[in-house]
Backbone:
């Protein structure tokens, strides 16, 4: 038996198929993964993401510490509640984890890191934090949900304390705010509008019930994965890990090269790689033949070399199979994928595949 | 769990087989298999006329979650495939023992005792639930 989130009983009540995910008993789906996926694209769905690790960083030198710890630059965070997506690198430039950092003040930041990397992340942060006299406080007592979809904020707003409701509805994308002992942020992992809401575990059941009563569809990890794949959002452990730099995972946009004298962990290694014209491409693929692309399938680029699918699956919105893949350097826009001994045709497309309910690629 | 149709035989790999009046057999996957796979999105079917060995790869069903081989429960020759699955693989989820059939095979005869009766298969499912 794995760890259970405060919502676990609600998942069972709703008929969830429960699977192990990084030591947590989590809902895979509640009947139909495809219907849950469509609910988020067309209306609203709610995900239990309480398994994710919330870490508060406090200390006079918190900003300085984060400028050293992660590849993006928290100096970009100047406004209260602003969020920053970044990678935490090892000295070789490999990704220890990807995370979101919310800015409360120069001495107070909230981070959300992956569940499956919890222990090594906390150990790494604490190891680095010592010299900076930073408190690294895990908030495992908190629950977290993601309410996502074009109608998500409207349907979820009545759950927010009236005192903070208007401010929550006025949040701009990628901003959050403290709402009493809740934290509400206009962020997510689906490519749709919505909120991620952190709350005391004691509030978790009633909020879940109210959202479902309001017509918000409960959604499992299955739909979460197909939604993030369509949105071309990376999944740690599939698209990148400690042997892969952000530059080979399509995450160069999250690396702040300026100011040039900011010395963050892994900088020297990825600067060297930045000059390397042979570094691998990270691309979106659309399968032109029938079939389904899957993780780890081999990609063959005629006359160039071989690569691999890092995240593949069926896109319910497009009705075709799509993937993220790491491919050899070169200027080409077609390749083939080996599926059960046959070579099928794939086309390289600009991601995201889907955003805000709209298909964004030529199909 | 709905009741299993009484005229079917089953395998431990969660396939079903029905003897037709003309001596051919129809084959599909069970409700249990379809539910475990989740929403089906693609079915790779064999060629009509192809010979298959008992236990050999015959088709592949792919769901949102994973790809899964369908093995031939008996040896024979593919007489027909369910072409409607190409556009609507979810027929297997909706009606696994009916419209969701996968192939029809002509067979020279086979050992029925190597397959499970509905009661025996139900017992297997009950054990899996425990």
Residues:
């Amino acid at each position: 038996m794995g760890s259970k989130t405060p919502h676990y009983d609600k998942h069972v009540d709703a008929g969830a198929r429960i699977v192990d995910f990084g030591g947590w008993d989590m809902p895979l789906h509640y009947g139909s993964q495809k219907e849950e996926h469509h609910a988020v694209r067309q209306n609203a769905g709610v995900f239990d993401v309480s398994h994710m690790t919330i870490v508060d960083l406090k200390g006079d030198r918190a900003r300085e510490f984060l400028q050293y710890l992660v590849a993006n630059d928290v100096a970009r965070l100047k406004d209260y509640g602003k969020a920053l997506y970044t990678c935490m690198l090892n000295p070789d430039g490999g990704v220890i984890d990807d995370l979101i950092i919310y800015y409360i003040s120069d001495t107070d930041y909230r981070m959300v890191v992956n569940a499956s990397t919890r222990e090594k992340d906390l150990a790494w942060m604490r190891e680095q934090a010592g010299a900076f006299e930073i408190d690294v406080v895990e908030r495992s007592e908190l629950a977290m949900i993601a309410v996502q979809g074009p109608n998500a904020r409207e349907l979820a707003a009545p759950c927010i304390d009236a005192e903070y409701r208007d401010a929550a509805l006025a949040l701009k994308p990628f901003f959050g705010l403290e709402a009493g002992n809740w934290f509400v942020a206009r962020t997510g992992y689906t490519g749709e509008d919505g909120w991620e809401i952190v709350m005391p575990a004691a509030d978790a059941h009633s909020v879940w019930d109210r959202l479902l009563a309001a017509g918000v569809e409960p959604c499992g990890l299955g739909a979460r994965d197909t939604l993030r794949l369509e949105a071309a959002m990376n999944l740690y452990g599939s698209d990148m890990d400690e042997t892969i730099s952000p530059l080979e995972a399509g995450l160069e946009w999250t690396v702040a090269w300026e100011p040039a004298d900011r010395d963050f962990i892994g900088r020297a290694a990825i600067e060297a790689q930045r000059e390397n014209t042979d570094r691998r491409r990270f691309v979106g693929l659309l399968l032109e033949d029938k079939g389904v692309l899957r993780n780890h399938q081999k990609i063959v680029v005629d006359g160039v070399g071989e690569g691999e699918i890092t995240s593949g699956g069926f896109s319910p919105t497009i009705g075709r199979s799509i993937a993220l893949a790491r491919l050899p350097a070169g200027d080409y826009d077609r390749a083939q994928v080996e599926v059960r001994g046959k070579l099928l045709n794939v086309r390289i497309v600009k991601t995201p595949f889907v955003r805000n309910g709209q298909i964004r690629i030529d199909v | 769990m709905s009741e299993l149709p009484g005229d079917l035989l089953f395998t431990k790999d969660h396939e079903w087989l029905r003897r037709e009046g003309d001596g051919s057999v129809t084959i599909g996957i069970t409700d249990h298999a379809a539910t475990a796979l989740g929403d089906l999105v693609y079915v790779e079917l064999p060629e009509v006329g192809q010979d298959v060995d008992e236990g050999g790869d015959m088709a592949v069903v792919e769901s949102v979650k994973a790809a899964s081989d369908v093995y031939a429960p008996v040896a024979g020759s593919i007489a027909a495939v369910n072409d409607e699955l190409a556009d609507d693989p979810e027929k297997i989820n909706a009606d696994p023992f009916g419209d969701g059939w996968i192939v029809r095979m002509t067979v020279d005869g086979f050992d029925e005792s190597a397959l499970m009766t509905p009661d025996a298969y139900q017992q297997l499912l009950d054990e899996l639930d425990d």
Observations:
- Chain B has a mean pLDDT of 94.
- Chain B has one domain: 26-125.
